[in-house]
Amino acid sequence: MDTDISVVNESRASLYWWFATLLTKELDKEQLALYFSGEGLQLLDQLAEEAVFEKPVKQIKSALLTVLAVKQPELELAADFSELFLTDAKKGAPPYASVYLSETGQLFEQPHHDMLAIFKKQGLAVDPTFNEPADHIAIQLDYLGNLIIQDGGEVSETQVAFIEESVLPWLGLFVTATTKVSNSGFYQGICQLMQAFIEQDIAAIKA
Amino acid sequence: MNKLFKRFWQIVSKPSVHLSFGFLTIGGFLAGIIFWGGFNTALEVTNTEEFCIGCHEMSENVYVELQETVHWKNSSGVRATCPDCHVPHNWTDKIARKMQASKEVWGAVFGTIDTREKFLDKRGELAQHEWDRFSANNSLECKNCHNYDSMDFEIMSERAQVQMKMAAERDQSCVDCHKGIAHELPEDMESGEGTLAKLEAMATSGYKKGENYYSVRQLPLFTDKSLATEAGQLNAATEVKILEVSGDAIKVEIDTWRKTKGFGRVMFEDFAMNINEGYLTKEVAQSDQYMQKGETKEDNLTGLPWQKVSLELWMHNKSLTESRDTLWTFAKTTYDTSCSVCHTQPAEGHFDSNTWPGMFNGMLSFVNLDGDTQALVLKYLQKHSSDFSDEAH
Amino acid sequence: MSISRRSFLKGLMVSSTAVLVGPGLLQVAEAAAAETKGTWKISGSHWGAFRARVYAGKVQEIKAFEADKYPTEMLNGIKGIIYSPSRIRYPMVRYEWYLNREKSDTTKRGDNRFIRVTWDEAISLFHAELERMQTQYGPWAIHAGSTGWRSTGQVHSCGNHMARAIAMHGYTVNKVGDYSTGAGQTIMPYVLGTTEVYAQGTSWPLILKNSKTIVLWGNDLVKNLQVGWNCETHESFEYLEQLKEKIANKEIRVISVDPVVTKTQDYLNSEQQYINPQTDVPFMLAIAHTLYKEELYDKKFIETYALGFEDFLPYLLGETKDKVEKTPEWAETICGIKADDIREFARSIVKERTQIMVGWSIQRQQHGEQPYWMAAVLATMLGQIGLPGGGISYAHHYSSVGVSSTGAAGPGGFPRNPDKPQNRIHKNQDFKGYSSTIPVARWIDCILEPGKKIQTNGATITLPDLKMMVFSGCNPWHHHQDRNNMKKAFHKLETVVSVDFTWTATCRFSDIVLPACTQWERNDLDLYGSYSARGIIAMQKLVDPLFQSKTDFEIFTLLARKLGQEKDYTRGKTEMQWVEELYSDCVESNKANFPMPDFKTFWKEGFVDFGKGKDWTRQADFREDPEINALGTPSGFIEIFSRKIDRYGYKECQGHPMWFEKSERSHGGPGSDKHPIWLQSCHPNKRLHSQMCDSQAFRETYTVQGREPIYINSDDAKKRNINDGDLVRVFNKRGQLLAGAVISDNFPTGVARIEEGAWYAPLDEKIGSLDTYGDPNTLTQDIPTSELAQATSANTCQVQYEKFQGQAPAVTAFSGPIEAS
């Protein structure tokens, strides 16, 4: 076991989980505060040190500044979240692979079943309190984080295959869909950051 | 980092704790099979009246009672024996019945009904058993002799016609109405179960001459003290004044209104209000013998002539009550529950008494109310309609 | 594979992410039974019963229940309802309202951002608003009585749940009547003694055996019998098939009196008597005139069974105020039928046994009471009421009326009324002089003109000052008229709450939106055959409630919990215990005549069959003995003249049926110079009202360029340079919409059809904005039928249309809450 890799994997996993968290539900007041002055801001600044992440981080920060101007910024971001992820494909960017990869463009299509099949094999299930189709981006990222941790000191074929076969095929389409909605831009920034991160990650593995 | 790992472990280390439920009661099931086998062989032996009255519980109680009824002695000379009514004619049902009867045999052996008193105490339960069975097989044994299709409604009394046609249409179970036709009824119950029993339970007794009472349900009227000649039917919740009490019969006065277009058979509570008090046979309606005619007025809203009449007729000395309050409470509950299945039921005061019959008829397709309850609920609605309340629309 | 070269992560302090990461979304699965191809389950719907194959938690396949020999193709739309992109997935609150509550900018309703809230918060908000209304205003401020076609299932019947929970909190404004039959159900008790529109009709076998002529008056049986109030059996179609054969053999003549060639006419291959829209009464009067003048009518029947003929005659003969004799020549100029043809029609229907079957759409127009009343007068003159295959009916197109009733009892429902009304939290019943019950179609008037006094059905009511609306399984932004007027009214409302499973326009114009699950995500049971009572159908839950949706039972249990009355609400029973109880009660009611299996067996088998009922003739008992079996009219007889209505002194509904000119009418009528096309908005062929419009793939089987079809005449199209498949803009002074042209000569010139139930999809929230999908109620007028019924007049509507030029905006409906940006 490569302890270095094991440490890196922990970092990777926690970043995947961080994105999963952001795309699972709206930030509450306390969580949001961490991005104005706290661990959130710290993490963003650290990420921005990488050139490829600079632009999205800038957008995130400027969005944070925008919402800071309103009385209840967490509500403003909640409305943004809803506009983007809780509406349908016509208005927003539903965070489900089925929307982008199936012919009907509807939910619960093949990608959902593919995810269920993967979970079944692994003896896993989606937490019933998060009653979403299994091809929700947050569920995929959450699962990916677990895969990485499970790998410990290596990067398994399974992990790579999952990123390439289950995440990448729709990631770009999804992130592009977010850009057609105009609001504070916070989540659009997060999504772009996520895309850049995943693309970098897989490129690094493959390199 | 600890937190992240914990999260991981939450997923992979959670034990699956799903245990299956215990077995069903297999013991009880086996016992049933053994019992069945043993009883089957005795089947033919028990299938005679002789067997039935072989124990004194039967011969001294129900058998004696039967001898007082039309099923024992009648103009046609045909008599019903115990197994005609009580042992199902269908073979598979027969076995099921025998198995039930074994409980009664068992009762005889251990002496639970060995005196008349004990039998009377138990009668309700035993009778209920039989009624349930008739109910379940739609009074199959009765219908072996009495068939709806062979009934000539034309030679029945008018009241019987109305009731029997209704029953025939629904192929109703005979014992629904004709309980106590071959044996006495359980003491605490005048007739039947369900709504009829509920309504009957509201009746009082010991009616006093000169006092006014209300019918708890639809009741037959007669022209004579012997209650032999049908005069019509009194509607539920209708006021009568007692003129004479003579054993099982009472003579009553009914002050009522009728429309004189047609035969004038239908009785109404008040001038120009279609609140039904029952109806008369053509003979009675057309005869001066039973009624005193009062004023005649034209109802302005329909142009129909109305006449006040006072009738003197006979009826059974039962099924009356002092006040309509309990009847109304029952009717209101029924209306509130049965009639709100499809929609919010209109408030009682939303319509006047002449509009309610039309509105109520429109609702009946979707509710399951028997004739007595329908009549009572409609009357309740009419008596609490906008004609009688100041409640705003 | 090595990742040590991955420079981009170097130096990153991931420990900071620990506080930023929330709980995981996965857990170890419970060992599940191995599924091969899935499980077949049974359920019901307004469209009929079906079996569904469920695999991997998803409904995969649907096939009609074997007992249904004539299933509707709409079963193909069921899956699309469950997995519709329009599903409401979470409790949502209009953002602006969330921030400012009753002071919110209500002009933004319909074009606003929503935020997701937890169930807890949603119920708290709902409760707080009810509380505020009761304390700040009073019971008159809340209207929680508007109900619609709901989903089927007797335990979860959404209106019952809403009514029970809200009544446990306090009193509210309620409604009387409905949009389907408002005028008919109000006038008919005066005339024939019951609503007629919801009454069982003469059994089809008796009609097929005895009728020589069947007149379908504005009545499209084949289209409308596809759906039922309870689970539909489609047994009527067996008889329609026989009727088709009898028509082919010339044993029965069927005449459809209708401006358009109906689906029924197409199917039966029967005759049509064309008539100008909205002119049924002149035609009927002229028939009556002919029957009278030629002494063809049944005098004896009228003498025995009817009242007021002599009071009606002067009007017919032109001896009253208008001095117009209602001759066929007079009628011809209005209804477009040649005088001689009218006479011939009259003679033909009186000659032999004639069954008149009236549809409902002719009473959904201004003065809609009149054609219903006049049709009854005609039937009375024919003298065949109460004879098998004769007389008149107003419901043979509805829920399999005419399929004989078994007489079995169906399951009851979840109780609508509180068990302990004395425990109501707010006991205030002071409506401050406002009326507590309003005619259903007048609620927008209440909001716009509170305090106004209007006449209705013999009473004067004062319109309450509504501040809060609560809807459950009800979509008034489909069934009410005049969208732009509704927008105005909604500016005045403080709070609107909707419970639904799909983002209807009503939800989009609401402040609090609660996600119910569909009827296939819960356990329930239903009567199979609304009128035939053919059996009981189990509604087995196909899949668990999607997303955060909940059953109606759960939703209103949560509200009751807030009131501290959860136990009183549920009676301590679970959903499944309720299903079992309703079933057991049903077993009890039926035990004398219809033995039923125990609950376990029923649930496993999924169905109880009561068999076929006995044939029955409507009003036969009245014909046999009109005295004892009197009608429910004031006199007990058929009332050709109603002194009672006459006394009301109404202008637009007087003592006997009359012809009144409409505010808008085609073919030379008022308003037809500017807006020459009569817009018919009848019940849809491929939906149940607005239900199933959200079923995407199924909708696409009939839309034109993604828009609701408008059916138009080829000459009318040519004149406007419109080709089949073009987009057209339909408009009048009330509004405008986009629709897709379907050219069909089933529709005469001057007539167009857009089926009601097409979802409202305005470009934005502004008054007058273009409806991008094609909801006909964008164009209809919100006027009452008359002072009597105060019912909807949707079919009194003139429009103009033109080819749409330019870039068509996208359809804004069938998605989440956010409209335009």
What does this structure look like?
The complex is a heterotrimer of chains A (207), B (393) and C (821). Chain A has ten helices and one strand, in the order H-H-H-H-H-H-H-E-H-H-H. Chain A is an all-alpha fold and 207 residues long. Chain B starts with a helix and ends in a 10-residue tail after the last helix. Chain B has 393 residues and is an alpha+beta fold. Chain B has helices spanning 2-13, 26-40, 49-52, 56-66, 82-86, 91-110, 116-136, 140-143, 158-169, 194-200, 282-286, 325-338, 356-363, 371-383; strands at residues 212-215, 219-222, 230-234, 239-246, 249-259, 266-270, 273-280, 291-299, 304-316, 320-321. Chain B has 14 helices and ten strands. Among the domains of chain B are: 52-73 and 80-176, no CATH class; 215-238 and 247-319, no CATH class. Mean pLDDT of chain B is 75; it is low at 1-45. In chain B, the strands form two sheets. Chain B has a six-stranded antiparallel β-sheet, with no helix packed on it. A four-stranded antiparallel β-sheet of chain B has the order 2-3-7-6. Helix content of chain C is 28%, strand content 16%. Chain C has 27 helices and 30 strands. In chain C, helix 4 runs parallel beside helix 20 and helix 10 (280-293) crosses helix 14. The longest helix of chain C is centred in the N-terminal third of the chain and has 19 residues, at 119-137. Chain C starts with 25 loop residues before the first strand and ends in an 18-residue tail after the last strand. Chains in contact: A-B, A-C, B-C. Strand 1 (124-126) of chain A pairs antiparallel with strand 1 of chain C.
